[in-house]
Every structure is written in structure tokens, then in C-alpha cells.
Write a structure and sequence with these properties.
Blueprint lengths: L2 E7 L7 H12 L3 E7 L5 H10 L2 E6 L4 H7 L2 E2 L1 H6 L4 E4 L7 E4 L2 H12 L8 E5 L3 H12 L4 E5 L3 H11 L6 E4 L8 E6 L17 E9 L7 H9 L3 E3 L2 H16 L6 H10 L1
Helix pairs in contact: 1-9, 5-6, 5-9
This protein binds 2'-monophosphoadenosine-5'-diphosphate.
The site of 2'-monophosphoadenosine-5'-diphosphate has 13 residues, from helix 6.
Length: 274
């Protein structure tokens, strides 16, 4: 029987993950299938159990189930534990007692910034805008790349402060502030808010951008355009979240199959397709 994988969410029809994993499987010669699985809002666990019983070997988890997946995983990787959310499950057994949860979003972001965009995070000033689930999921990986400082700004200050408190022991200086507190001249600015969902520009003032800064929105497609236009207008290098999406998928593929796909041709193909 072919090993089955899926992206589970609600909604899930928009997900590009099946295309990405199909390309990875072809490229690496791995025999597997990857589908979209719509889980009813009140039946996430039942949907996963049925999938595992029918040959499912693992899944990616998207909105709004990343916290449910965290709760469901019997074992968790350190980075999933730190972020408080799971975007990848591996079913080593059919029952939930044998499921391991990982979070590949942060590694995906860091790999995209460092390998694809060619920007080193080591020793630079990083501004993380937002303190919701998306920001929490990537902060640990950003810290592991050893920037000089990470400032987290958010509309709601106490959420930024909570993130700083949770990650304070990891050895990189962290500060929290409101959106208007954002410091000037940051080398790398990451938008992890959902403001781009409304087609808005940037939640922070352009003075945050150092000359030639990289300004990355974790979204891609039309949702990211307002932020990307803002970045380009103010002399920064704009970058959307497509590279991060493909890099987090590659981490998940490796977590399941032990084989690391080459992301460059997949990023090129997806860019052309969009
Ligand atoms: P996600 O999983 O996408 O991170 P989330 O946990 O709901 O979703 O977090 C959404 C993020 O976008 C938060 O940082 C939120 O700010 P608050 O914590 O103050 O709610 C931010 N956000 C959403 N709408 C916003 C807006 N109109 N202006 C500024 N920030 C906004």
C-alpha cells in the first residue's frame, strides 16, 4: 500500500502543499501520496484517527488546528514544544499514542532567509512584527540563528512580552514593544501579523527598515502584496512567504521520510505557477 500523507485544515482547499510534496516525492523517488483533508471543526481528532487507520503515515496541520495537534501529539520535538504549536505529525503507530508532533515553520523561515534570500541572521538586528501563533511558531528558530537582538512588537503588548518571557533563557537579547515602539534601522523585518489578510500595507512605520533591509511577509499571493509594495517603496528587499512554505514542507518531508528534497527547483516551479 502506498504511504498516505495529507494537509489537514478547515478550510484547506487553497493549500499548495499537495503540489509541493508531489514534486518532492518525484524528485527523491519516494512512493507516497499527499492529499487535502477537510476536518470538521468539531472532529479534528476523529478525522486524523480515520486517516491513520486507512494508511495515513503523517500529516501537516493548518488553520485552525495547530494547537489541537499540539495537544494530541504523544511526543513532541523540542522546537514544537517551544512554539506551543504543531504543524507536522508523524504516525509511527495507528493510535495517537504513537504520534510525534513537530513544528517546521521556524526552520522553514530561517532556511528561506539564509539559503534562498542569502541573508545571514547571525549578528543582525531582527524585528518580528506580531505575537500570535505564527510568530510564536518561528521565534525559537530565529533565536537559534544567533542574531544580535530580536525585537517583538505587537498591537497587544502583553502578548509580545509573554513571548519574550518564554524565550528569554535561550541566550539572544529579546525586547518587546507595541507597534509604535518598533526600533529604527532593522536589518531583517518579518511580518507575522494577519494584517495582510485585509490587504493593508505595513503595521509598522518605514523607519524600522535599515538601508537595504530584507522585509519578509509570511503570507504569499495577493494577501502579501500590500506589505511587499510598502517594503519596495521604502528601499527594502521585499520577500513573500512562498519560500518559507516550501522550506517548511521540505523539513516535514525529511521528518517523515528521512530524505531531504532539493527545494530550489520546486520554488522556481511554484513561483512560475502562481
Ligand atoms: P496567527 O496564527 O496567524 O498568528 P493569531 O494568533 O490570531 O493568528 O495572531 C494574529 C496576529 O496579527 C497578532 O499578532 C495580532 O495582534 P494582536 O495580538 O494584538 O491581536 C495581529 N493583528 C491582527 N489584526 C491586526 C491589525 N488590524 N493590526 C495590527 N495587528 C493585527
Amino acid at each position: 500500500m502506498t504511504d498516505r500523507y495529507a494537509v489537514v485544515g478547515n478550510p484547506v482547499a487553497h493549500s499548495r502543499s499537495p503540489d509541493i510534496h508531489a514534486m518532492f516525492a518525484e524528485q527523491t523517488g519516494q512512493r507516497l501520496s499527499y492529499e487535502r483533508l477537510l476536518a470538521p471543526l468539531d472532529a479534528f481528532e476523529a478525522t486524523l484517527r480515520a486517516f491513520a487507520a486507512a494508511g495515513g503515515r503523517g500529516c501537516n496541520i493548518t488553520v485552525p488546528f495547530k494547537f489541537d495537534a499540539f495537544a494530541l501529539a504523544a511526543k513532541r520535538t523540542e522546537r514544537a514544544q517551544l512554539g506551543g504549536a504543531v504543524n507536522t505529525l508523524r504516525f509511527d503507530e495507528t493510535s495517537a499514542g504513537g504520534w510525534t508532533g513537530d513544528n517546521t515553520d521556524g526552520a522553514g523561515l530561517v532556511n528561506d532567509i539564509q539559503r534562498n534570500a542569502g541573508r545571514s541572521l547571525a549578528g543582525v538586528q531582527v524585528l518580528l512584527v506580531g505575537a500570535g501563533g505564527a510568530a510564536a511558531g518561528v521565534l525559537g528558530s530565529l533565536i537559534a540563528a544567533a542574531p544580535a537582538r530580536i525585537t517583538i512588537v505587537n498591537r497587544t503588548l502583553d502578548k509580545a512580552q509573554a513571548l519574550v518571557a518564554n524565550h528569554a533563557h535561550l541566550g539572544v537579547p529579546l525586547s518587546a514593544g507595541t507597534l509604535t515602539d518598533a526600533p529604527a534601522a532593522q536589518d531583517i523585518v518579518v511580518n507575522a501579523t494577519s494584517t495582510s489578510l485585509a490587504g493593508a500595507g505595513s503595521p509598522v512605520d518605514a523607519r524600522v527598515l535599515a538601508r537595504g533591509a530584507l522585509a519578509l511577509d509570511m503570507m504569499y499571493g495577493p494577501k502579501a502584496q500590500g506589505f511587499l509594495d510598502w517594503a519596495a517603496t521604502h528601499g527594502a528587499e521585499p520577500r513573500d512567504g512562498l519560500g518559507m512554505l516550501i522550506e517548511q514542507a521540505a523539513e516535514a518531508f525529511f521528518f517523515w521520510r528521512g530524505v531531504r528534497p532539493d527545494t530550489a527547483p520546486v520554488l522556481k516551479a511554484m513561483r512560475t505557477a502562481l
